[in-house]
Structures
1.
Amino acid sequence: MSRRASLPGASELFRLTGSSPAFDAEPAPEPREQPRQAPSARKSSLPDNGAARRGSGRQKHDAKITVYVSGDELLAMEHARLTLRGSHDLVVDRGRLVREAVAVLLADFDQHGADSVLVKRLRDGGVGDVGGHDGLQAEQAERN
């Protein structure tokens, strides 16, 4: 007598057991691929002003990217996150913090174009203060 439990195989676990409303329904139509638009045509679907751009907040997202940061950048981000929690009663995760930061940067780019913080920092090689906020405030004060 074997001490092993007798378990069903994959074919028994995944076999069709009868009619189900889920199986009777017609399959959803395949999404049509939209033709590629010229950059000028795509721009019209973007927000016109920087105020309209916001981070997406807490919701299910359908796209993902991986970004590698230095230890100092991660520490600065965690410090900002904890400061938001401790001083401003805002509990945010890293993802939301990054989405909001990207939204702010892109809104500034939409509004100021060549004079935006993004363009200036990229022209300067993208290297700056690890915390980022001192340089950002100085650049914004310089612009105004």
2.
Amino acid sequence: MHRNLVQGFFRNARGMLRANGEIHVNHKNNAPFCHWNLEKLASGSSLALVQRVDFNKEDYPGCHNKRRDGSRCDKPFPLGESSTFKFRVSHRTKVSEITTSLGSMRKKILAISKHSNANAAAANF
């Protein structure tokens, strides 16, 4: 559930980036969080990790970590060992995206070609 939320965040945030903009994600390093593979989640939105640094709360004034639910939902939780992951738009186009695009173009060209040939054949009669 939470991984899906992060994946959706990447997808939406990517569309808001300006040229050379970055997306920063502060994330815990201990289990189970270390198994989320943020780089892979980000790559699904054409984002690439450019830097990973130790999280420093002072770098984010106004940031207050809170529990997500329960009677203590407004209380902070211990951050423990955490990192800030910095992502930018990846300029490498995925081979699968190119292949898919070429396949779609080929189908369109074939459809147009068949339609043109049918019209030419009809004009010859």
3.
Amino acid sequence: MYCIELKNVVKKYGEVIALNGVSFNINCGEKVALLGPNGAGKSTILKLLAGLLKPEKGEVLVKGLDPFFIEARKIIGYLPEDASPYLMLNVRENLEYIASLRGVDKDRVDKLLDFLGLRQYENTRIVYLSKGNKQRLALALALLHDPEILLLDEPLNYLDIPTREKVISLLKSMNSTMLISTHIMSIAERLVNRAVILSNGKVVWQDDLTELKKSSGEEIESLVARLMEDVN
């Protein structure tokens, strides 16, 4: 059984086709990058897998389950792009509220506060946080229950360099199955070995990044850009 599976998925927003027959699989424990330009359909795929959207056609499965099932939601951690935690709560209250829903011990809250450098902001309401600190909190919320499957949309946005390095190190050390959406190749190369490349709502390439680089002789960034352009 695959941990993540999409079969001929079509998703529309009104008359706009966001995904057009997308298919790919991710093995359990695998870390995969979802690459593509803005508007390629990356965020839509993560929302489908997180159970926030339904496809018009095709099938989306998380460990063989519909993402809308509670059994699937229990094992998923989801970081949306530009996440917005509960604005009227403070940092600790956000974490403790989600911890209570997830059945997570408060010790885990304290560990993440310290690891992500949020201890000094634990009593600060979200409306007063910088974008970088909101992103740290959003990451903590996604990681809180040590999920089997992590869906991360631009996880390193707004982070300073020391925090970025800590997060990269943590993600690399985890055994979770990960699908990481990004348009920055240098980040993808450090976190994953395999990538799925989207353009105009279609998969234009999927395979091992190292093999792609060996076979083409090009730098990964320029090669990916060419693959995207070729489909337009």
